[in-house]
Amino acid sequence: MTTHHAGIPPVALVVAQYNASITHALRDGAVEAYAAAGGDPGGLIVVEAPGAFELPVLSAAAARSGRCAGVVALGCLIEGETTHADHIANAVANGLVQVGLQTGVPVTFGLLTVATVEQARARAGGGEGNKGAEAMQALLETLAATAALSRGETGARSTAAKPDKAAAVSG
Asked: Is the CB of residue 124 less than 8 Å from the CB of residue 132?
């Protein structure tokens, strides 16, 4: 596996095409975050998934390909009148966890699970930031921590500051 600028390894983006206006914004945020970290966006492996349900199997294929150090799975589920979105979200979350555990290749969860299109837009580059960029940042931090562990470094951890949601809720 080749590495790109500043030691940033190649990664795969698996992007659901259902709700494409949202998922493409998530993809763009992930690409921007990768570039901001020093990665070469031209080296990203972008895999289009028909919908969110297919994210785990295509993430597994990307992880097993040997072409990437990690996978960012991106999609958008908007709640409807039934519990369909809940079932899909649970299946995707469980599937993506299994991909990471079974392959040893980190996979991050960039699946929006929202009640409205407005909430999705807010999380795909709007007022709530871009969850695609956050999923990419989480992957890059995970790759850095696993590399440190492989080198035998103790206290391997991410140095990025994280928002404290508990403090925001109570404060």
From this structure: yes
Residue that has been written with the tokens 């206290």 in this structure = 155
Amino acid (one-letter) located at 103: T
In the block, tokens 């659901």 appear at: 16
Give the CATH number, domain containing residue 106: 3.40.50.960
Q: Give this prediction's pTM.
A: 0.87
3-state secondary structure of 26: helix
Pair 27, 46: CB distance under 8 Å? yes
Range of the structural domain that residue 143 is part of: 5-170
User: What whole-number distance in Å separates Cα of residue 9 and Cα of residue 83?
Assistant: 38
Residues with a known catalytic role: 84
From first to last of its 171 residues, what are the pLDDT tens digits of the chain?
444 445 799 999 999 999 999 999 999 999 999 999 999 999 899 999 999 999 999 999 999 999 999 999 999 999 988 888 999 999 999 999 999 999 999 999 999 999 999 999 999 999 999 999 999 999 999 999 998 998 887 665 555 555 555 444 444
